[in-house]
């Protein structure tokens, strides 16, 4: 297939490329084999006999699929609920009771299909999911992602401490054994090119030192992804350090037990000290920025713009559903923008997250966090074709976008229509503007 579209994609943290007319050649296995930059009106050189060429309709453009680096599949059923509470109370009162119901495989089967369909339809082509602690539910989630065609990391939650009796692993050893069984299921039975296992110690409070050690050893042996929560909320940090008084910091708890690697995904990181940031950098771990959740649960505001400026580029966005109330990553991008502007106002500094950086976080940055940047994140030759076709002038936005003339004619003169359409979609668009969703070269929505 050859797709001839205007494209917008991230080449790096501060480089967003806009190109008016590009032919992206995609092989049968979904790999981008050639990217041709064309002059307006020129014809595409058809590579193979009979190869189908798809041309953009008016106003349409193509962007890479959005990457959600942190979401809890069994929490979608609570979306938008419980934000009068802070983290630890919210977990105990709202989250754990809901997750516990996924011991019932029928509930998992029905709900996870809805979750994956919903996230795909809002343009999340890749998602890193926490399942519940149940082995069966986690296998179901991995299967559903595979069968619905979503690229995903899926993990069984590990928690053997400070968790309710009705929702905890029986022991550190059992937690490890079920995790190994799950990883082997994904690798040997499911054998999906889209779905990868991820070791998922919930956070230090819910994991004994023994459990973190065992998982850390396994992670080091198996070269497998790992995801956890880190330094989200002040009350959480105090309780964590009371449980681990001999570790120098929250980040050291993970570093000292083998949990920090270049395939670690660390959610939130709202209150890291300079020393902890350096530890994260040293291990080349990724940070999942979850701004909507951080506001809702009054956790904190991560200064992602500063981290990026300091050369920490392995950062992406997480919906953290249902700490966040969003199904997709567009809302996270908007809240990330608001959060960085709030910091800029509070600190009287002129810098905040630029459009280039925001879109980087939602795509290529997310791919880097998940160590999938050789596979996805932009339209480079050799990557897989995960893409969204956007038309900002459809459905809900039609009247609005067509009726509003740019206020400043001079600005309009300088700013290309494509850039303007793209920015307006990011900040004022809806999922109704997403015309098609491709994962691995296949149309899934
Ligand atoms: N920390 C430990 N578990 C969770 C969770 O489910 N959501 C959030 N936001 N933080 C956590
Ligand atoms: Fe979370």
TrEMBL record:
Organism (species): Wallemia hederae
Entry cofactors: Zn(2+)
Gene Ontology molecular function, alphabetical: guanine deaminase activity; zinc ion binding
UniProt entry tagged with the keyword Lipid metabolism: no
Classification via Pfam families: Amidohydro_1
GO process annotations (BP): guanine catabolic process
Enzyme Commission number(s) from the entry: 3.5.4.3
Enzyme kind, highest EC tier: hydrolase
NCBIfam families: guan_deamin
Tree of life domain: Eukaryota
Substrates-to-products reaction catalysed: guanine + H2O + H(+) = xanthine + NH4(+)
UniProt cross-references to SUPFAM superfamilies, sorted A to Z: Metallo-dependent hydrolases
Domain Amidohydrolase-related: start-end pairs: 61-444
The protein's name: Guanine deaminase
GO CC term (a single one): cytosol
Matching InterPro entries: Amidohydro-rel, Guanine_deaminase, Metal-dep_hydrolase_composite, Metal_Hydrolase, Metallo-dep_hydrolases
Record-linked Gene3D superfamilies: Metal-dependent hydrolases, Urease, subunit C, domain 1
Binding note for cofactor: Binds 1 zinc ion per subunit.
Record carries keyword DNA-binding: no
Biological function: Catalyzes the hydrolytic deamination of guanine, producing xanthine and ammonia.
Keywords: Hydrolase, Metal-binding, Zinc
Pathway membership: Purine metabolism; guanine degradation; xanthine from guanine: step 1/1
Protein family per UniProt: Belongs to the metallo-dependent hydrolases superfamily. ATZ/TRZ family.
């Amino acid at each position: 297939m050859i797709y001839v579209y205007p494209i917008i994609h991230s080449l790096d943290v501060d480089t967003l490329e806009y190109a008016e007319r590009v032919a992206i050649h995609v092989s049968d296995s979904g790999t981008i084999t050639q990217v041709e930059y064309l002059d307006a009106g020129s014809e595409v050189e058809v590579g193979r006999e009979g190869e189908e060429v798809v041309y953009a309709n008016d106003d349409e453009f193509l962007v890479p699929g959005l990457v959600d680096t942190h979401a809890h599949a069994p929490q979608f059923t609570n979306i938008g609920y419980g934000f009068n509470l802070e983290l630890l109370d919210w977990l105990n009162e709202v989250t754990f009771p809901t997750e516990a119901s996924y011991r019932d495989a029928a509930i998992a089967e029905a709900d996870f299909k809805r979750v994956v369909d919903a996230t795909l339809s809002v343009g999340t082509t890749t998602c890193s999911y926490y399942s519940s602690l149940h082995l069966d539910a986690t296998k179901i989630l991995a299967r559903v992602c595979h069968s619905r065609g979503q690229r995903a990391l899926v993990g069984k939650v590990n928690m053997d401490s400070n968790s309710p009796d009705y929702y905890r692993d029986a022991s550190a050893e059992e937690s490890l054994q079920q995790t190994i069984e799950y990883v082997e299921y994904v690798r040997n039975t499911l054998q999906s090119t889209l779905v990868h296992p991820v070791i998922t110690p919930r956070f230090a409070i819910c994991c004994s030192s023994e459990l973190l050690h065992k998982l850390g050893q396994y992670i080091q042996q198996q070269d497998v992804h790992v995801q956890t929560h880190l330094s989200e909320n002040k009350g959480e940090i105090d309780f964590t350090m009371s449980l681990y008084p001999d570790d120098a910091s929250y980040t050291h708890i993970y570093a000292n037990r083998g949990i920090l690697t270049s395939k670690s995904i660390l959610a939130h990181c709202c209150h890291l000290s300079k020393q902890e940031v350096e530890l994260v950098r040293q291990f080349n771990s990724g940070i999942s920025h979850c701004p909507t959740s951080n506001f809702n649960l009054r956790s904190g505001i991560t200064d992602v713009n500063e981290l990026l400026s300091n050369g920490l580029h392995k950062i992406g966005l997480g919906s953290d559903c249902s700490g966040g109330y969003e199904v997709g990553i567009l809302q996270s991008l908007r809240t990330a923008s608001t959060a960085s502007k709030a910091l800029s106002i509070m600190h009287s500094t002129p810098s905040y997250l630029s459009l280039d950086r925001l879109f980087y976080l939602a795509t290529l940055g997310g791919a880097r966090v998940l160590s999938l940047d050789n596979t996805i994140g932009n339209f480079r030759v050799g990557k897989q074709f995960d893409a969204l076709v956007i038309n900002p002038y459809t459905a809900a936005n039609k009247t609005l976008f067509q009726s509003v003339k740019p206020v400043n004619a001079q600005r309009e003169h300088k700013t290309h229509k494509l850039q303007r359409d793209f920015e307006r979609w990011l900040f004022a668009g809806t999922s109704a503007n997403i015309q098609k969703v491709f994962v691995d070269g296949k149309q899934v929505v």
